[in-house]
Amino acid sequence: MRIELESVRRRFGSVVALDGIDLCLASGSRTALVGPNGSGKSTLIRIVCGLIGHEGRVAIDGLDPLTDRAKLAPRVAYVPQVAPRLSATVGELTAAVCRLRRSPQEPILDAARGIGLDPVALRGKPLRSLSGGTRQKLLAAFALGSGAELLVLDEPTASMDAMSRTRFFDLVQLLDPRPTLLLCSHRLDEIRNLVDRVVALEEGKVDHDGPATQYFAATGRSVVELRTHNGRASTFLLEHGFQQSGTGWWRTTIGTASRGELVREVSDRLGTELEDIVVRDVEESRSGPETRR
Questions:
Q1: Tens-digit pLDDT profile for the chain (293 aa)?
Q2: What CATH fold (topology level) applies to the domain 3-218?
């Protein structure tokens, strides 16, 4: 599904949440929506889903998400940042979702199991009686097993444990490539291999719009940690900004684009003195989770 936004604005009283957003996301594209607290990410997502009004034009495959909700609903799957506390049981919700989409339950049940839920054990329980993490997993299963043409995911793993987050993103990676994906997350290290485009918001405006590889190379940060056999400092490590912890590990943080060169240089210079080395991505501060606005 193609997403088009032209001069989209939204105010909450005196606060400007979105200020003239122009975007076009092609059908089948996979886009990460990032930005700091209050940048307007959740507001934009709710507008795309037809949940709140706005100024400007929004079209999903040529349809207005506000006035054409009945036509779009069976084709769109949305996971909010906070799962609602509904009184309906898990079984009732599953049946309702499948009736709306005219689809079988098995793909949803398979997705639930893939995230670590037992859908049979939960069938008779009201959604509001479940923990926040379990409710979030269930909504994620509804989306991943829906067969929707547009998946809109707003911090979908915010309440999940580390294992469930890993399982969820693994399932996203295995999705059919045809659906359009709009994914809002501050965990850039977890989503970098899921998207081909990054749109970054800053104070309600588009601050960056381009290929994901370009964005991650320019903004990503990585931590390099290493141990040496003798534990002693070397002039080389100190010159490259490494600091030693009480456990004997040396640590520095650098731009992701430079980490490969540093690792090669460390290996060449330390040689057999190098006992172990670990490289991991860290979350970029500008993409932190957004306050609800």
A1: 999 999 999 999 999 999 999 999 999 999 999 988 889 999 999 999 999 999 999 999 999 999 999 899 889 999 998 888 889 999 999 999 898 888 899 999 999 999 999 988 999 999 999 998 899 999 999 999 988 999 999 988 888 888 888 898 889 888 888 899 999 987 777 788 889 999 999 999 999 999 988 888 777 778 999 999 876 667 888 888 899 888 889 999 988 778 888 999 999 888 888 999 999 877 544 443 333 33
A2: Rossmann fold (3.40.50)
Q: With 0-12 CB in 10 A as exposed, 13-18 as middle and 19+ as buried, what is 275?
A: middle
CATH topology assigned to domain 222-285: Alpha-Beta Plaits (3.30.70)
Is the Cβ–Cβ distance between 108 and 145 less than 8 Å?
yes
End-to-end CA separation in angstroms for the chain: 26
Q: What is the C-alpha to C-alpha distance for residues 232 and 273, in angstroms, rounded to an integer?
A: 10
Contact 226, 279 (CB under 8 A): no
Tokens of residue 151, six digits: 């998946």
Which token pair is 73? 């609903």
Spatial separation of the C-alpha atoms in residues 172 and 110, rounded to whole Å: 13
The b/e string for 103-115 (b: 16+ C-beta within 10 A; e otherwise) is beeeebbebbebb
How far is the C-alpha of 123 from the C-alpha of 119, rounded, in Å?
6
CA distances from 272 to 237, 240, 262, 267, 280 (A): 15, 19, 17, 8, 22
Amino acid at 263: V
Separation of alpha carbons 226 and 269, rounded Å = 13
Is residue 240 helix, strand or coil?
Answer: coil
Structure-block tokens of residue 184? 């809002």
Q: What residue ranges do the domains of the chain occupy?
A: 3-218, 222-285
177, 103, 187, 110: which is closest to 144 by C-alpha? Answer: 110
Q: What interhelical angle do 132-144 and 106-115 show, nearest 10?
A: 140
